[in-house]
User: Which sequence fits this backbone?
């Protein structure tokens, strides 16, 4: 396909060939361990490369997708038409006073450990969330009575034209699992957190306590995307699912976790279609029993398998 061949050439001008993969299986880049191939997947080395990639995609009118650790993502079996930009190489973390600035590809684990090292508290809740700081800021991630809105100071982002802008917390439009990043399609480049001085031993004890709670209550031994559904107003998704007698329900190797009904897990070799079919089954049963609509927290990208055939000539 001429357009994709030209696109590949242009991308290769702004980043090293080793950073570009063609027909790359997305199962290698998501915590669900499922997903068909992305036409092109790029792992840029720095901010300038990210800007250049976005501008190239805009020029050629090719859709692009940003991912960090792929921990809140379900890619369909047909894969992704367009360009996936994976920000894993943007992982520098700096601490100055009570502020931490972390590039968007930094894992939440690494950010929380940097805070612990400097005796800074407030971000402990994020220690066990298996994602990147950029994704966490974008979706206002949270757990155990904490969320990013409590510690976020500002972000550095790229707008739809490939230009850099700084967005302060007050302009982030933070709400439950949403922000201006998602609303306006920005690309998070770095996140600055404002924390408080604390006692290292107390911070570590809090992290250890939350880690144990996660291990005891969540199916961390299986591939998943964390909590599959958003919390419906006035309810808990996991309680609704459990009370619908859906624990252990499965489609193929996709299963509603027996350990935590809010998690759909890939027990071994589930397909994305298995997971999607199980999601719909759960939604239908909860709607029928309780009249409550469950919306997915996990992002769903891509196409079904039968419509996915595109090859990229290098």
Assistant:
């Amino acid at each position: 396909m001429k357009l994709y061949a030209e696109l590949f050439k242009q991308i290769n001008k702004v980043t090293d060939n080793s950073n570009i993969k063609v027909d790359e299986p997305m199962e290698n880049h998501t915590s669900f361990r499922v997903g068909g191939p992305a036409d092109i997947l790029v792992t840029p080395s720095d901010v300038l490369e990210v800007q250049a990639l976005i501008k190239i995609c805009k020029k050629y009118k090719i859709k692009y997708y940003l991912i960090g650790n792929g921990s809140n993502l379900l890619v369909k079996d047909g894969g992704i038409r367009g360009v996936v930009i994976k920000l894993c190489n943007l992982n520098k973390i700096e601490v100055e006073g009570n502020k931490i600035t972390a590039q968007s590809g930094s894992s939440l684990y690494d950010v929380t450990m940097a805070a612990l090292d400097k005796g800074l508290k407030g971000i402990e809740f994020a220690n066990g969330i298996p994602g990147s700081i950029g994704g966490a800021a974008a979706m206002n991630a949270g757990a155990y009575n904490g969320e990013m809105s409590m510690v976020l100071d500002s972000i550095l982002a790229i707008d739809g034209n490939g230009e850099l802008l700084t967005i302060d917390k007050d302009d982030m439009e933070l709400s439950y699992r949403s922000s201006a990043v998602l609303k306006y399609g920005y690309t998070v480049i770095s996140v600055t957190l404002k924390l408080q001085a604390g006692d290292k031993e107390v911070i570590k004890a809090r992290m250890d306590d939350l880690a144990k709670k996660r291990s005891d209550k969540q199916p961390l031994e299986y591939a998943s995307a964390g909590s599959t559904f958003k919390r419906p107003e006035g309810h808990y998704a996991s309680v609704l699912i459990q009370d619908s007698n859906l624990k252990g329900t499965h489609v193929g190797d996709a299963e509603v976790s027996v350990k935590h009904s809010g998690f759909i897990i890939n027990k071994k070799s589930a397909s994305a279609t298995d997971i999607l079919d199980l999601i719909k089954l759960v939604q239908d049963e909860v709607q029928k029993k309780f009249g409550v609509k469950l919306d997915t927290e996990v992002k769903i990208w891509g196409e079904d398998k039968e419509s996915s055939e595109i090859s990229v000539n290098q």
